[in-house]
Amino acid sequence: MKYQNQAAAIVNEQIARLRAVLAEVNSRLAPATSDLRQIARTIDELGVRSGHTGANAIVVRQLKQLQERQHALEVEVNDLHKAARSIEQLIRQTEMSSSTLTEDASQADPWNLALKAQIIQGREDERTRLAREVHDGPAQVLAHVLLGLEHGLTLTEHQNYERLRELLLQLREGSRSGLHEVRRFIADLRPPALDQHELDVALKELCARFDAAGIINVRSEGTRLPRLTPEQEIVLYRITQEALNNVVKHARNAQVAVHYAAVKGQVILLIRDNGPGFEPRAVAARTRGKHWGLASMRERAALVGAQLSVTSAIGHGTEIRVTLPIGELATRV
Fold it and tell me: Between the chain's N and C termini, which has fewer beta carbons within 10 Å?
């Protein structure tokens, strides 16, 4: 017991030091995050106002400066978040090690605690991703409508009804687009296609939806897939969805081919496009491995034991390949 107490004291001292470092990181993270949100709001307001009244050189210069500052803050905040998560994980691991030195260690399984911590962190990461999508989608539409209405009140005071009518027509179209975006966002939270159909049918519908939007041309081909677990199906669906979203963002008007098949105890999913492509190493170095779309896809694949690879080169498009071992699941019920 004597040596156990000595060991426990050493571990507790290290935990206290780690918590002090974590407190310092969080003290820097809070103001940086607040500044980033304020800059994002300012950029939104300047962008919407310039859209209504026309941008001048001063506004353009202000936007450029704010965007540069925003990028620098995003890098800083991402680094601080990564540091905080790493330190928190180290603290949890150290605490679990400390629990083995106590008499009631049998009351808490360290591996079970680690699994719960991972699940909690995964939920927080997902909430962060959803917050970004809401900010970039519905929140932008609402901000545009609000500023448009304020501008409309000004036009009413000046009795400029012709310009007011034009503005109202623009706001109507913007609101329709926003409503469509919100409905898409809700549907994406839990794809109804997976509840109503099997995975291969759901993938076909997903590709058809992107193709119908007219921004990229999507063709899907595949064989009937075997029965998978719900977790495996949603992961393959989400990876395809994220890959197509990336093409929309970075390779508009591209031709995209989505292939899927079950081959020798594996499900193979391929998403190829003929867009401008990129250098994976250069992107990884520039974003320090935090390219959100690629990181999200890799994390999702790893959760179900799949392997994901990305092949791309400037001028030669991009290919995403997912290999999911299925073993005995390759028979349909």
Answer: C
